[in-house]
Design goal:
Layout lengths: L4 E2 L6 E2 L5 E2 L3 E5 L5 E4 L2 E12 L5 E9 L5 E5 L1 H7 E2 L12 E2 L4 E10 L9 E12 L3 E11 L41
């Protein structure tokens, strides 16, 4: 089972949704997220890498995360996307963070939250909506669905790194923290 959705102008894929998908992007989750409890809520944290393989700009308008029953469990519109997007490589103006030039990548820092740790069932899928995109193979399109990722059974146990008084844990699950938004090369998705 593929964890990425790779679509090119030359190949029209017929996915499980029966619609041609010809937007030339690769969408790949970074890891299989494990449930994490923090601040009284359950979280699934991971990155969604979106690479433009086409010859013109691709602008992301919305990302929805769907559970195994195709229910929307996280929804990021334009203003939320601006806050969770990171652009490795050349600097871009803040108003252009969702516009991905040909050959470049954007990373969305996804946080699926729930009051109930077991309420979200996997695998998760992603519905990514772009500003209208015209492809030779499939005409005008806006939406891709795929990039499936399973939910890991267990995560690493994390405890206090230091003992004694005077230590404070900061930036918890903040998307603004450099700890959350640092890109490091590691093992591929398993």
């Amino acid at each position: 089972m593929s964890r990425s959705l790779l679509v090119t102008c030359l190949a029209v894929l017929l996915g499980g949704f029966g619609e041609p998908q010809g937007i030339p992007v690769e969408i790949r989750p970074s890891i299989s997220p494990a449930r994490v409890n923090a601040e009284g809520r359950a979280h699934l944290l991971y990155e969604l890498h979106i690479t433009n393989l086409g010859r013109s700009d691709a602008t992301v308008a919305r990302i929805e995360v769907l559970d195994a029953d195709s229910r929307v469990v996280a929804d990021y519109g334009p203003s939320q996307l601006d806050a969770i997007f990171f652009r490795p490589g050349p600097s871009v103006a803040p108003e252009d963070v969702r516009r991905i030039a040909p050959g470049l990548r954007a990373v969305a820092f996804i946080d699926v939250e729930s009051d109930d740790q077991e309420a979200i069932s996997g695998p998760l899928k992603h519905r990514v909506t772009f500003e209208p995109f015209t492809t030779p193979a499939a005409g005008v399109q806006t939406t891709l669905v795929g990039a499936e990722v399973s939910i890991a059974e267990t995560g690493a146990a994390v405890g206090p790194p230091l003992r004694g008084d005077g230590w404070v844990a900061m930036h918890g699950l903040s998307n603004a923290s450099s700890h959350r938004r640092t890109m490091l090369k590691g093992d591929p998705v398993r």
